[in-house]
Structure formats: structure tokens, C-alpha cells
Design brief:
Rossmann fold, two-stranded antiparallel ribbon, Related to S. pombe trp-asp repeat containing protein, single chain, Arc Repressor Mutant, subunit A, mainly alpha, 4 domains, globular, NPHP3-like_N
Amino acid sequence: MSVAQVWRTEGALGAQFFFSLASSEGSTTEKFCSTLARELVQYMPELGPHIADAVKRNPAIIRSSFHDQIRTLVTAPLQHRQKRTILVIDAFDECKSGTQRRELLDSLAMAVRETRNLKIFITSRPDPVIESVLQPLSIKAQLKDRLHDVSHHDNIDDIASYVHQSLHDILPQDKRQQLVDKANGLFIWASTACRMLTSETSLSPPEDIYDRLISMDQPGAIDSVYNLVFERIDPEYYGVMCAMLALLLAAFEPLTIDDLDDLLKHSRVPGRAKALVQNLGSVLSVDRGTDQIQFRHPTLVEYLRRCTTAPVIAKHNKLYLNAVEAHGQAASWCLKRLKSPNGGLKFNICEIESSFFLNRQIPDLDARVTRLIPRRLRYASSHWLFHLAETDDKWRRALVRELEPITTYPYDLYWMEVLSLTGGVPRAILGLRSIVGRTGLEKPRSNLKEIRRFLMRFSVPIQESAPHIYISALPFAPKRSLVHIEA
């Protein structure tokens, strides 16, 4: 049982948030406060009325400063609870932005000072922001760096227990112990090695894999293990594997098996998602609940990102992921999703019966979004701009014709509907800002600028109510603007 489960059983767990490099939402603090508020209501129902009242008094709180969000949604409601409350924040280092990490720590420190019974448990790999912010604070209980520290015997003992149990029927005890020693306190090294040795799809016998692992020069060098994982792939399929991994790496949130297969088909890459996961089961997994493909560890993401630099000398077994190509393929796929007659953008996509209600006043809005806005359309609406920004001029020029319908009436307004209903307006404004200065988009640039101005000027009514795109924002748009003229 994990420590979070123990605290939950005791009634002390208030909320938990898991950062993840594999997800656009999980690698930023955008949804941090709203997630904590939702889980506080779930784990401590007595706080529900206080949080609901706070949101009612300040409906635009999510657009307020991070400090204000923490105060309104977390610390103020917790003033009504006398017992201990623990917040768990896992993989803090996987929040991409150093500025966001610092702001989050400052806000959490403020929350602890203002809330007597609040405790916060943070896990992270070594991070300079944590050390610089928390080290001088007297309110911290403990700040320890024990990652990969072989002087802590429980680290080694945990790895030994895992290896001996996982490989009990595969290797004799002396060889299992040699793997424990070779891991040198790095659990991800041990777990990846064990999955390689127990893989049912491997063409190499465990003895050969063991010999390669033991022969590695540097103990605990995870890159060496990843090199071995990919070297064992049939050279005939190496190019396809690289193309598939590049698409997974380029994705701004995890793709499902079906998503990746659809993207591969669109991009004319002759691969199958399920086969990829089966052959790379030691480093990839599929979430049984969501069917999403996951990287097993952030060190793999970092390793793959280093592989996006083209090697000086091409080698048949040297991993190279063409990120520019992958983003271009993903951008094309997203634009196709947006325009699709089946499951694409359309008027009143969530079948809202009345414009008198704000989005938050529609009781079943979340269910409608899930049912009526397909997952791929939600992905495309949120991320197409960023894929377009991350590819090159050649791809952007090739996609101008596909881009034109999305930036003109009526699809531009239909897209705004999805943004309104999914909370995607701020990200869209950021994406439009990142794309308008890119080369290769000279023709649609004026439309993109107009849409950005429209979203920024009317961001409040658009975020508050999807129907008010048409009945409030559009009538008050400048009459000479392209958005107003076209509509």
C-alpha cells in the first residue's frame, strides 16, 4: 500500500496531483488548482459547500493569479477543517517550466503558512528550483535527496526484492544479484532490465540479454539499457519504429492505440500501434482504463528527445526520430479531423438548447463534451496550432490549403465553440501567437491574426458561454474585421 493510500484510509489525504512530461496538461500548472479543488470535494465532502461558494463568488477564479487560485480554492476552504490535511504532489520535476515550478512552490509555502493543519508531501528528482525555494524555509519538515543513493540500504533492498521476485524463474540467484549490483541504486534500470528478460515477444534468449546487460561499462547507465532495447529490433522495421516513436514523442498528450493507428494510416506509415507496444513492452505500456500508450519513465522521454538530433554519420541501428516530420504529420492529421464530416467541427456541437445558460450552468456539460466531441476532435482543436509551429516551412506551405477552411467562416466559429466548451481558449490564444510569426504561412496570416484578436477581445464571453460566440461576441466585433465580414 502506498503512503497516499494510507493517508486516504486515515481520512487525511486531501488531494493529489501527478505531473507528467507525457501530457500537455500534466506538464504545466494550468489545471493544478482546479484538480486540487475537485479532489478536496471528493475526499473531504464537507469542504464541498465552501469551495462551491468560493467559485460562485468569483466565477473567473481560474483566470486569476496562481496565488489567488490557491487562496480561493484550497487554503480558504481548509480554514473550515480542524483535522490534518495532506496534499501529495508527485514528479514535481516533470512540470516543464522553471517559472511555473517556482511560482507553485511559493504559493504552496504561502498556503502552509496560512493553514495550520495543512501538510504537503512532494516527490521529485533533484531540482535546483526546489532547493533554492525550500532550503531557506523554516516551515519545511525535511528536504532529502535520496534518489539513486547507494548509501541508503533500503534503496538497494527495494531493488533487490524487485529483481529477485521478477526473475525468480528466469535466472539463478547469483546472476540476479549481479543485476542488482549493476543497477547501482537506479530502479528504472532494474525494472527495464527485468521487463526485457521476461518479455514474451523477445527473439533473444534471457541468457543473451543478461550477458549484454552485465557487459555494460557504466553501472546504472540507463541510456545503455535503452540502446540495447532498440538495437534488438529487426533492422527491416527500424525506420517504421522510429517514425512511430517520433509521433508518440511529438504528441502533446498520450495517444490511444486507435489514435496512433489512425494517425499512421493518415501519414502512410506502415506500422501498427499494438505491435509497437508489444515489441517495446519494456519501455512502453498501455493504460487498461483509457487504452492510452504511455512511456514507462521520464528518462525514456529525455532519451528519445536526445535522439531527435540527426547523427553525423547514419547508422542502421542508431535511433533517429524526425520530430519536424512527426509534427507535420500530426498537424495534417489534426486539420483533417477538424474538417471531417464525421466527427469534425459543426454548429452547436454539444446540442445546447438555450443561450440563457452559461457553460457552467449546464448540469451535464462534461457528459455532453465526452459524448458529442470525439476525443480526436478535442485533441485536434487543442493542439493543431502547436504542431504547425513545431514543423518546418516546407510542411507549413504544404498545409496552407488544408488550413484555409479552418481559418475562415464558419469553421473558425465552430472551432471556438469547442474551445469554449473544453476550456481551450487560453491555449488557443497562445498557439495563435506562436504561429503568426512563422514563415510558410504568408497567405493565411491575416486570418490567423484576426482570429487571435477576436479571441483576446471577447475571451470572457466566449469562455463563459459557447452560444455567446454568435449572439454577443460576433455582433460587437469590428465591422471591418474579417471575422465579422465573413459571418
